[in-house]
Design a protein that fits this description.
By secondary structure, this protein is an alpha/beta fold. It has one domain: Rossmann fold (3-Layer(aba) Sandwich). About 45% of the residues lie in helices and about 15% in strands. The chain has a 5-stranded parallel β-sheet with strand order 2-3-1-4-5, sandwiched between helices. The longest helix is centred in the middle third of the chain and has 18 residues.
């Protein structure tokens, strides 16, 4: 696969089917998997506190650093499960200040202006070891995400609540119609 100068972001609150969608897209296109989950699992394994529900500042710092590395190491990826812009939503929700590195990151140089947004969906939401947030928290986080992407000037497209295969078809159809990429 050729390297892509920009990536398409798939975002949404925890438990909205983003990873399942990324797995479906990955059957055809290179994708970056969610860094947040890797960071949380690593912090839990090491007995540390870098989770959004314990120390959101440490969490955002770790995710930001890991995300930069992942983006640079994977130029061939076309889709990414979340972006560093999600970190702004976490920090805003907790009333924390936004580090300049996250606020001033060149999002529009690294990501397409169209962002795919997976809405909260109670029917598929499940908690696990890395997703301990309640569904009510996810609803609040969703509002913060929508606001953060809107403030940065991204066009948000809501992903329909259908099967993972239908969601992947929707995303691919939009990408093919909106961007001149050799698929």
């Amino acid at each position: 696969m050729p390297p892509y100068a920009k990536k398409f972001i798939i975002t949404g609150a925890p438990g909205t089917g983003k990873t399942t969608l990324i797995n479906a897209l990955e059957k055809q296109y290179p994708c970056l998997h969610e860094v947040s989950r890797k960071v949380i699992a690593s912090e839990q394994e090491k007995g540390r506190w870098g989770m959004p529900w314990e120390d959101v500042c440490r969490f955002t710092e770790l995710v930001y650093e890991a995300s930069i590395i992942e983006l640079e190491a994977n130029p061939q990826a076309l889709f990414t499960d979340r972006s560093m812009l999600d970190l702004i939503a976490y920090l805003k929700l907790e009333g924390k200040s936004i580090p300049k590195s996250i606020e001033n990151y060149p999002y529009h140089k690294k990501f397409y202006d169209t962002v795919f947004f997976a809405p909260t969906w109670l029917d598929i939401y499940q908690q696990d070891e890395q997703r301990v947030q309640t569904f009510d928290y996810c609803l609040e986080f969703e509002k913060a995400l929508l606001s953060s992407y809107n403030e940065k000037g991204f066009k948000r497209l809501i992903i329909p609540k259908v099967s993972p295969e239908k969601r992947a078809e929707f995303v691919i159809r939009v990408v093919k119609n909106e961007v001149l990429i050799d698929f």
